[in-house]
Amino acid sequence: MAGKKYTVIIIPDKSSGTRRFGIASRTVWAAAICVLSLIAVSIFLVKDRVSLERKILGLQPLQKLLESLGNRIQALDGSLESLQKLEKQLRIMASVKPRDLQSEFGLGGISKDDQSGSMEGLSPSGRRFVNRLNRQFLDLEHRAASQQRAFEDLVSVFREKKVTLAHTPSVLPARGWLTSGFGRRYSPFTGRREFHSGIDIVARSGTPIMAPADGLVIKSKRERGYGNVLEIRHMQGIVTRYAHMKKNLVRAGMRVRRGDIMAQVGSTGRSTGPHLHYEVRLNGVAVNPMIYIVDTPVARR
């Protein structure tokens, strides 16, 4: 069979000029094998492409889910930052020293064996994305646990200092616009720089003024320059003072609790318009009322 040949006859359009030549059977078999191999490879590549496209389509929902988780992680991160700010304010209010965050280290995580089993079929970029999400989740888990411990500690402190905290002026007494802060400012009457012993909250005439903490009314009268004045004695040497009221609704000797309505915003005394002048004095010395504030129901101009 090795010497067997095949004769190929080529007949042109015209009857003359017929050509004949022989091809060895070995050559024919080799050509047939090459053709069959190319067909098999083509079929394999087509099937592999179809399978790959199906995998990609199957991973699209997973990719969207991972992106959604990433967005939720960012939102949780913002929430934790807000909680940390609130914690700082509460610690100032309760006179508790700040936490030492450097001593808190996060431990734990997903092992490589667990990850390899859960990331089969993912592309290298997908694996990197999942690893980043894992690190972010671990960080959030640690920070959330740390924040929970911090608030649990604060709750115990607040329980011990419940009476003291109730007498701490931690909210502003009126809703409005903060137009003048504590410290040196230009006088609206003389144009000269002078010390402002409180803050001014502009509001409509008649706006309720509430007690920022529990206390005893020690003054309720009219004074030159300040108009209608109120003074409330709290605890630990703290006294709050209110001026320019339209009307005082409490009298000296009365006890008030945080949130009780004591007066109405007005423009009595030396005033350019309806507003509340609010002071906090510690052992007779004027201090910035904002250092006590946890919630600020006013807007700044």
Shape: rod-shaped
Poorly predicted runs? 103-115
> Architecture of the largest domain, CATH level 2?
Distorted Sandwich
Helical amount:
25-40%
- Tally of DSSP β-strands: 15
| Name of the CATH class of the largest domain | Mainly Beta
* Average pLDDT taken over every residue: 76
- If you consult CATH, what is the topology of the largest domain? Glucose Permease (Domain IIA)
Can you characterise this structure?
The chain has 301 residues and is of the alpha+beta class. It folds into 3 domains: 5-62; 67-166, no CATH class; 176-300, Glucose Permease (Domain IIA). Helix content is 40%, strand content 27%. The protein has 4 helices and 15 strands. It has helices at residues 25-94, 112-118, 124-160, 162-166; strands at 5-10, 19-24, 176-180, 183-186, 193-196, 199-202, 208-210, 215-223, 227-233, 238-248, 255-256, 261-265, 275-282, 285-287, 298-300. Strands 3, 6, 7, 8, 9, 10, 11, 12, 13, 14 and 15 form an 11-stranded mixed β-sheet that branches. A two-stranded antiparallel sheet has the order 1-2. Strand 13 (275-282) and strand 14 (285-287) form a beta hairpin. Helix 1 (25-94) packs parallel to helix 3 (124-160). The longest helix is centred in the first third of the chain and has 70 residues, at 25-94. Mean pLDDT is 76; it is low at 103-115.
